[in-house]
C-alpha cells in the first residue's frame, strides 16, 4: 500500500503553537521595519539577561556549597534555560533544540489533547485547518487473525492519513492517479478489441475455407455422379422397355430443381474444382456447354432411348434442358465475340 502520510506542515504547526499556546498567529519570514530597528536593543537586553542569570547562578552555587546538608545538583546551562521563543517572534526550534519534538510525537500529543476536551479540539482544529478528533479508533487484525484496538501510534498514523486524504495535495494526486488508470483501462480495452477483431477475422476466414472445401467436395461428388451416369448410358444398349434414368444437370440431380441459374451454377462450379470436372483434358466453360448441348438435344435423346421408351413428360424435360443450355451457349459465344 502506498504511503500517504500527510506532510502538511505538522512540525511548524505544532512547535510554533506550543511555543505560544493559544495564539494562532502565522509568523512571517520577513521582519518588520520596527523589528529591524529594535534588533540591537533586544541583543543588549539578552546579554544583560544572561549576565543576571549567570550572577544569580553563581550566588546560588555559593550558598549551596556553604550548606553541606543540601545535595549538590547539576545546574542547567544557559542554553537550557534560555528560551528564544519568549522574545524572538521569528524563532522556530530546530531538530537540535531541547524543545524539538519529532512529527509523530508532536501529532500524537496534539491528537489526544484535542480528544480530551472541546477547547483543545477547537485549538488544534485552528492549527491544522481541520478537526482531528472526529475519527473513531478502528480495529485491526493481529498476527493471530484476531481483531484488536489500534495502538496509540497506529491510531495517530491512521488519523494523519485520513486528514491527508482531505488535503488539496492528496486530491490532486488521487485525480491524476484515477485519470492514469482510466487511460490505461481505455488502452487495454482498445487492445482487447483489436485482438478480438483479429481472432474473429481468422475464425471467419477459416470458416470460409472450410465451407469452400465442403462445397468443392460436394460439387466433385455431384459431378462424378452426373458424368458416371452418362458414361453408363453411352456404354449400354438402348433399353427396349422400362424406366430410363436421366441425369439432370443440377447439383441435386433432381428434375424439380432444374432452372437456368441452377444449370449454369452447376457447370461453372464443376469447372472451378481444380480441373477434376474436366478430366485429364483442359476444357473451358464453352467446351462444357458445347458437349452438353449435343447430349441434351431432343433428337439425340430419341435415338438413344427410343420413342417407345421416353414418355412425353421426360421428353418435355429434356427439351427444356436443351433450350437452357443452348441459350447459355449463345451468351457465351456472344461474350467471346466482344
Automatic annotation (TrEMBL):
Principal location class: nucleus
Biased composition (Basic residues): 20-34, 49-75
GO biological process, one term: negative regulation of canonical NF-kappaB signal transduction
Gene Ontology cellular component list: nucleus
Leader sequence segment: none
Localization (cell): Nucleus
Compositionally biased spans, kind Basic and acidic residues: 35-48
Domain of life: Eukaryota
Keyword Transport included in the entry's annotation: no
Coiled coil: 171-207
Keyword Transcription: no
Disordered: region residues: 1-99
Keyword field: ANK repeat, Coiled coil, Nucleus, Phosphoprotein, Repeat
Protein name: J domain-containing protein
Native species: Arthrobotrys flagrans
